[in-house]
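Our preliminary data section would be incomplete without showing what the modeling component actually yields. Below, a chain of 486 amino acids is followed by its predicted structure, encoded as tokens that our downstream tools consume directly.
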Amino acid sequence: MTSQVRGVQLARLLGQWHALPGRRRSPDYAALAAAVRGLLADGRLPLGVRLPAERELAEALRISRTTVTAAYRQLRETGHLASRRGAGSWTMLPGTHRVASTGLWTPLDDRDMIDLGVAALAAPPELVPAAHAAVEDLPRYLSGAGYHPTGIIELREAVARAYTARGLPTSAEQIMVTSGTQHALDLVLRLALAPGGNVLVESPTYPNALAALAARRARISTHGLAVDGVGWDADLLLGSVRQTRPKLAYLIPEFQNPTGHLMPAELRERLVATAHAAGTDLVIDESFVDLPLDGTPLPPPIAVFDRHSRVISIGGMSKPYWGGLRIGWVRASAPQVQRLAAARVGVDMASPVLDQLVAVHLLAQAPAIVAARRTQLVTQRDALLDVLAERLPDWRVGVPRGGVTLWVELDGPISSALARAAEEVGVRLAPGPRFGLDGTLERFLRLPFTLPAADLVEAVGRLAAIRYDLDRGVGRPRWREPAVIA
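Predicted structure:
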């Protein structure tokens, strides 16, 4: 069944649609159509959703039905709306688009785009030798069927050793290998969360985690993170757990995505105790745990404080190594791992053996690879901070002690408008609302420092020009129509 957005819901999402850049030189219907395209661009309005009837939307926006009719007509002409008499109108996309690595529908001719929507590094030089070594190891697995629902033993042991080295004794039986961290989260949700279950998340948080929760029809409550300081207000976070008693809480304590905050040890211990008392399971995303910068010491893993199997940790190879190597894992109790393996049978059976062997060889070189990554990230982070201070001094940004992103507070609620305009000058952004639930966070922007320093400097230069054009109302952007679909 096709989902539908009501008039009042769409009006709330549109917000101050008539205040978009260039409005004074454009009729209301064009501004309204552009605002709907903008909602598609930052993912707040999915594809295939039936829009409200013209009269309903006109009443919700307190404008004439003629304006809505003209806006819908323009959306049909640009390929963003399909209508059938008596049945309604559905959001869609024009042709000649493809899905980019960000989950965006993008034009096919965007090879010169500086993509700041992806917070991931290019592959390290050690990847190709590791792949060659993995091919040499492969024959000893070829006599079997190749299905290893919990992962090959070599990789599970390597991951277990890494946890043990962090002060969390772990056996291979507590590790399940998955096809990336997102897959790990999906499997955990399938096991631990019934449809419609209550989940607590940080705000802002990782957009694809929100997508996974939406797929489970979860009822999501949020704990807001401060821009400055440690991010988590301990009393508010623990109070939210006690009051809402969620079935799950999904948290990113190590260099939180997108803010870069690091949760202190004292709060970790209190969080586990509070979760146990509330009957809440903690799903801890450790995607960035290998990337502390500037010699930042890491607190103990949250699972160190767990005595009741309330903590399930997930992680993977994407951030410290390479996103194209789809290897992730779950660390949980041995019985939980077995239940996850049983749940996995209906999804993908097992992860590729060859990819797992590549991961084994990369993890054997982890100290050297990760050290080089940290050095690279510090250089790129500092270059990005310097050019932001020079070209956009009114933007506020803290210095993250790890991870790969800056969470920037802009000088106005312009994040989505800036992202749309930036497409025209060859820069792709992930605007703030993508990291929240309700279309807020328009004053924020995530900027990863995973690209070479020269690309980051060039991108900020283009953003500075666009920012000042928005102030002057110059050059209303032509919409390139990317739309989040996942």
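The two ends are 18 Å apart (CA to CA). The chain is about 40% helix and 15% strand. Preliminary results of this kind motivate Aim 1 of the renewal.
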